[in-house]
From TrEMBL:
Signal sequence coordinates: none
Coiled coil: none
UniProt GO MF annotations: UDP-glucuronate 4-epimerase activity
Domain of life where this protein originates: Bacteria
EC numbers: 5.1.3.6
Enzyme class: isomerase
Pfam families noted in UniProt: Epimerase (PF01370)
Protein name: UDP-glucuronate 4-epimerase
SUPFAM superfamilies the UniProt entry points to: NAD(P)-binding Rossmann-fold domains (SSF51735)
Keyword NAD in record: yes
CDD domains attached to this UniProt entry: UDP_GE_SDE_e
Domain NAD-dependent epimerase/dehydratase stretches: 3-269
Length: 341
């Protein structure tokens, strides 16, 4: 298939592009390479996909390479640029669009909400219109476990009501689900939203807990442990995330067990809670170094625990993430050591 992956220079987007290329697809990766975190890391991911940084830095120009015997292309473009996006869809035909392009980060959304509206709402609306007019067969997009907000019933189920978000980031992700539902209903565009649960692994973002903890411990600095360590997350290894995504992308909706359901939401998580303290223990074990723990109150916009019910994903696609936390943390530490040292 010919597949557009937005957010291709991002953590999950990079891994998905690499897997889809290995599976024999032609991929066009799109990213605006914003400076929310180190752009050097973003360009390094693109270079892993065979696109030199000098070419990737040029706005609106498609660069190509051969990776694993298949074609990888990249274009630097902002989803909020409607004219640029229209040109891309006029000049290319996409079987599937996978939207991972979004302004990430719960805490940053408290400080700069406009960035989230432009990228996550305006950008997503532009993409929906392009998919509608471009005869795209399937739109797969990233939602987030953050949409569960103040929900107290766990594990979180896609049957739960999610109308109490506690961050702008979460609100924009819920808006994506509502917009996708409308396009599925009005224009018969098959859409699949994936609520990710605390994704971690090699090439991870510098603002995420695993990166921050490993970086601080290796530098002999204390780590900030929020809510005094009384937190739990359904940590999900990045290979499990993109493995599930590729299965959904490669299975036509009409041939899946969901069949005639054009609009669908799935949780994609490890279906297991890990205490934050146990997560830190796994990091200490991989580094063979104890952490200096700075216990702090919970931050605004944060929730105490997450846990994914993935029964729908198992039923419809026979897929369930299962990488143990110890293995996933070690993979990240090995990458960090190789990349930064």
């Amino acid at each position: 298939m010919n597949i557009l992956v937005t957010g291709a220079a991002g953590f999950i987007g990079y891994h998905l592009c690499e897997l889809l290329i290995k599976n024999g697809h032609t991929v066009i990766g799109l990213d605006n390479i914003n400076d929310y975190y180190d752009v050097g890391l973003k360009y390094a991911r693109i270079q892993q996909l065979g696109i030199p940084r000098a070419k990737a830095e040029v706005d609106g120009q498609i660069s190509s390479s051969t990776l694993h015997g298949e074609q990888m292309k990249f274009i630097k473009l902002d989803l909020a640029d409607r004219q640029g996006l229209d040109r891309l869809f006029q000049e290319n035909t996409f079987d599937v669009v996978c939207n991972l392009g979004a302004q990430a980060g719960v805490r940053y959304s408290l400080e700069n909400p406009d960035a989230y509206i432009q990228s996550n709402v305006v950008g997503f609306a532009n993409l929906l219109e392009c998919c509608r007019h471009g005869n795209v067969k399937h739109l797969v997009y990233a939602s987030s476990s953050s949409v569960y907000g103040l929900n107290e019933k766990i594990p979180f189920s896609t049957e739960d009501t999610v109308d109490r978000p506690i961050s702008i980031y979460a609100a924009t992700k819920k808006s994506n689900e509502l917009m996708a539902h409308t396009y599925s209903h009005l224009y018969q565009l098959p859409t699949t939203g994936l609520r990710f649960f605390t994704v971690y692994g090699p090439w991870g973002r510098p603002d995420m807990a695993l990166f921050l903890f490993v970086d601080a411990i290796k530098k002999g600095k204390p780590i900030n442990v929020f809510n005094y360590g009384n937190m739990a997350r359904d940590f999900t290894y990045v290979d499990d995330i993109v493995g599930g995504m590729s299965k959904i992308i490669e299975t036509p909706v009409a041939e899946s067990k969901r069949k005639d359901e054009l609009y669908k939401i799935y949780n994609i998580g490890n279906n297991k809670q890990v205490k934050l303290t146990d997560f830190i223990d796994a990091i200490e074990s991989s580094l063979d170094t104890p952490a200096k723990r700075n216990l702090m109150p919970i931050q605004p916009g944060d929730v105490e625990s997450t846990w994914a019910d993935v029964n729908d994903l198992i039923r419809d696609y026979d897929y369930k993430p299962d990488t143990p936390i110890e293995k996933g943390v070690k993979e990240f530490v090995d990458w960090y050591n190789d990349f930064y040292e």
